[in-house]
């Protein structure tokens, strides 16, 4: 997946704002079943939130986040507190649920 531009991340953050975390990372960290859950959620929704329950230190969360991104081939949209938002478009273009804007939307003049 290519890197998202700032306005594209803002668009995805807006879509994810009301969402609840669908995957929760517990004391065992990143395990094969956890990665399978993330894979399944990304395939079904394209945009998901992941919550860290037992990892309160920023360094450990950052390391786990990088591992998840690398293994899932998703893009980090944002990170707030103990929750990260991930995006990965469906591989089949016709089945994509989220259409990311190619150009920033200009606000009308006041």
Would you give an account of this structure?
With about 110 residues, the chain is α+β, with helices and mostly antiparallel strands. About 35% of the residues lie in helices and about 20% in strands. Strands 1-2-4-3 form a four-stranded mixed beta sheet, with helices on both faces. The longest helix has 15 residues. The N and C termini lie far apart (about 35 Å). It comes from Desulfobotulus mexicanus.
Just name the CATH architecture.
Answer: 2-Layer Sandwich
- Which word captures the global form? globular
The spatial strand order of the largest sheet comes to 1-2-4-3
Number of strands: 4
CATH superfamily, called what? Answer: YhbY-like
Low-confidence stretches: none
Largest sheet: 4 strands, mixed
The helix/strand series, from N terminus to C terminus, equals HEHEHEE
User: Looking at CATH, which topology would you report?
Assistant: Translation Initiation Factor IF3
- Overall average residue pLDDT: 89
Q: Approximately how much beta-strand content do the residues carry?
A: 15-25%
Give the tally of structural domains: 1
In which range does the helix fraction lie? 25-40%
Structural class, from secondary structure content? Answer: alpha+beta
Tell me, what is the CATH class? Alpha Beta
SS summary, helix count: 3
Could you tell me the radius of gyration in angstroms?
A: 15 Å
N- and C-termini, Cα separation = 37 Å
């Amino acid at each position: 997946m290519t890197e998202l531009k700032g306005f594209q991340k803002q668009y995805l953050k807006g879509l994810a704002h009301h969402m609840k975390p669908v995957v929760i990372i517990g004391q065992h960290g990143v395990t094969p079943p956890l990665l399978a859950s993330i894979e399944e959620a990304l395939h079904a929704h394209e945009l998901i939130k992941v919550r860290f329950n037992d990892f309160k230190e920023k360094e450990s969360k950052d390391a786990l986040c990088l591992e998840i991104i690398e293994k899932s081939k998703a893009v980090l949209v944002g990170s707030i507190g103990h929750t990260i938002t991930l995006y990965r478009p469906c591989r089949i273009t016709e089945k994509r649920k989220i259409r990311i804007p190619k150009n920033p939307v200009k606000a009308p003049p006041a």
